[in-house]
Design brief:
Largest sheet: 7 strands, parallel
Number of strands: 7
Structural class: alpha/beta
Distance between the termini: 41 Å
Number of helices: 8
Radius of gyration: 17 Å
Order of helices and strands: EHEHEHEHEHEHHHE
Length: about 230
Amino acid sequence: MSSVLVVGGTSGIGREFARMRARRGDKVVVTGRDAHRAGTVAKEIGAAQGIALDLSRPTGIAAALAALAGVGRVDHLVIAGVSRDENRVADYDIEAALRLVTLKLVGYTEVVHALGPRLHDDSAVVLFGGQAKERPYPGATTVATVNAGVRGLVNTLAVELAPVRVNAVHPGVVGDSPYWAGKPEDLLAGLRARTPAGRLATMADVVDAVDFLLRNRSVNAVELAVDGGWLLG
């Protein structure tokens, strides 16, 4: 049995990953911005604990993680917390940009810093990026920038935390995720048509990719795209 912490584990792909590992019999802790929701989700998926943690408020992260009950070592750490941001240069929202940059780059790093004493030589970390860094779209100014920043963060953490392994997963369009599932079918059909695999990635695909990055002990400082070849379309 492994101890697994999923930051951003109360919804979407983070929740699906946490549920899979809990069903496997691992000791899973999930975090979310709201304490009640984190506790409720933990019960629903069979996790051991749910705690409140806001990545966009990094000065409170260490105190939030101190609330981990009965968790000594952390074997697997997944930081899946994300925030949707439609922010164009022509109509730039500075506060929204600061929040997302803080959440993804400072917040992610502070989680790893706060958990440093709980990590061990065989621990593994997976950070979430996204393919907007390779194929930006109008409104993706901040999203594309921070997801490109995840690349540098993975590299420096892999060096500084060695032998702890650190990798990143970069999903493309995840067709059954909460964000994409409600989009118009003609939009999704167009995306599928431009994807060489002929199908959009699913949450199960991303969950499997994260699990692979955590368990394969020779994979380190890798950025794994899960997009069906979307960038080639």
